[in-house]
Design goal:
Immunoglobulin-like, eight-stranded mixed beta sheet, single chain, mainly beta, Type 1 dockerin domain, elongated, 28 strands
Length: 463
């Protein structure tokens, strides 16, 4: 059979397509990767894995990793739960030289899976160019005093003595992989938040700042912005009005400067911080004056620490929303206008824990403009607060022929969709024995009832 010239050209083209293309189009790069992980301060037994992709079988590897100290402590490095353990049926590699230097935060390791023998090649992990195979497990503990942060876990060539490089070994040849560092996130367990709110155009609104944390704090700074074309901040008659009736008031009763009260409480306002922006800032140090008895706000969930009253513009459009934001982008309104040399500090949100500043997670409050009557759960008599009189109002209605609440939802303290003596007991427990607060929208926020039940509001209650 005669081989035509055209056939030769086609064959050459075929070979070029399959052989002459760059290797990157055929195989993935060889890589070493450190997985990302997260944990809380004080947590131990936190796992992190080093993995590899490899375009040819590998018989071993070496790694050199730097991790931050004293934030993290590397307690062990082993092969539990790895592809190496699977390859060896749970046995240990024939060689594993692992060294942890806790003083400098360095891990170095050299590993050969199996030496092999006469007539038997060394054990190897099969090629896996696109799916990472885990090589080694690292187990960390987190220092109790580590602040929320994202910490680097980094491959660094040349660590140790003698210096160890990060590489893979295939058939006795060195593969220099692309190195992908990891991150260790120490979780932020401090959360500032506003609940969603409902407000009527031309009406009023109370925004309550809540705080969740697992550690006691010594103080805080809060910076809040709002749309001053839609909301006008109503300053209370005294500074105590910013937290009277909140969880902070229960812990530090009597107002700023009172015995066992918050010893330093400093609100500062700028209703025109920028076009369309109003700014409200607050600073509190709980134990500021002698004898320095160590007052702190204890750990808690859903703690109310501040409340701000607003009037709503009649021009607000029903169905639209605005945001009351925890905002770190302005300066404190603390400089007197007569002092042109004064430089204000940044108005940022933080809490003080063990003398250190921690930036909390911030959840802004979304205000929806609506014509539906909102209410404060527990405010049965429609006055300005939730107190013993509201519990008595329900008892009088149920058992003494008293007036019916204009908002039945407000009297459903336990939010079970009915009104009975249990609601009075629920409110008394909340007021006097640290029982759980009435359900959403709560005793301080104005809002709609999130529960679908037969109770209704004829008029807004306390909003």
């Amino acid at each position: 059979m005669q081989f035509k010239q055209s056939h030769l050209i086609i064959l050459i083209a075929f070979v070029c397509v399959h052989i002459c293309l760059p290797a990157s189009n055929v195989f993935a790069d060889n890589t070493l990767n450190i997985s990302n992980t997260n944990a809380n301060a004080g947590e131990s037994g936190v796992e992190c894995f080093v993995s590899a992709t490899n375009d040819s079988p590998i018989e071993g590897f070496s790694i050199a990793i730097q991790y931050p100290i004293p934030e993290l402590f590397l307690t062990s490095a082993d092969f539990t739960g790895t592809a190496v353990s699977d390859l060896l049926s749970g046995n240990q590699p024939d060689f594993a030289g692992i060294e942890i230097d806790s003083n400098s935060g360095v891990l170095t390791a050299g590993v050969i899976f199996g030496y092999g023998s006469v007539g038997q090649a060394p054990l190897a992990l099969s090629a896996s160019p696109s799916i990472p195979q885990t090589l080694i497990r690292l187990t960390f503990s987190v220092n109790n005093e580590t602040l929320p942060a994202t910490l680097p876990l980094q491959f660094v060539d040349g660590l140790g003595e003698p210096g160890i490089d990060n590489l893979l070994s295939s058939g006795g040849f060195t593969l220099n992989p692309t190195l992908h560092d990891g991150e260790f996130t120490v979780n932020n367990q401090h959360i500032f938040s506003f609940d969603p709110m409902l407000a009527a155009p031309g009406g009023s609104l109370t925004a309550v700042l809540k705080y969740e944390h697992i550690e006691p704090i010594q103080g805080y700074q809060v910076a809040i912005t709002y749309d001053n074309t839609l909301l006008t901040h109503l300053e209370p008659s005294s500074d105590f009005g910013y937290y009277e009736g909140t969880s902070a008031d229960a812990v530090f009763p009597g107002g700023p400067g009172s015995f066992n009260g918050i010893e330093l409480f400093y609100p500062a306002m700028n209703p025109d911080a920028a076009p369309g922006v109003g700014l409200a800032t607050f600073a509190a140090i709980f134990d500021f004056l002698p004898p320095f008895s160590g007052q702190v706000l204890p750990a808690g969930s859903n703690q109310s620490i501040l409340k701000l009253d607003f009037s709503v513009s009649p021009s607000a459009v029903i169905g639209q929303t605005t945001t009351i934001a925890l905002d770190d982008s302005y300066n404190l309104p603390s400089c007197p206008t007569a002092d042109p040399n004064c430089v204000p500090g940044p108005a940022v949100n933080y809490v003080i824990f063990d003398g250190l500043s921690i930036s909390p997670i911030k959840i802004d409050g979304v205000v929806e403009f609506d014509s539906t009557p909102g209410f404060r759960r527990g405010n049965t008599n429609s006055d300005s607060g939730v107190d013993l009189a509201d519990a008595l109002y329900v008892v009088n209605y149920l058992f003494a022929g008293g007036s019916e609440p204009t908002c039945m939802d407000s009297a459903d303290m336990n939010d079970d969709g009915s009104l009975d003596i249990s609601d009075t007991i629920f409110l008394l427990n909340y007021l006097f024995v640290s029982g759980p607060p009435p359900g959403a929208p709560g005793p301080q926020n104005c809002g709609p009832d999130p529960t679908d039940d037969s109770l209704d509001c004829v008029l807004a209650s306390g909003c």
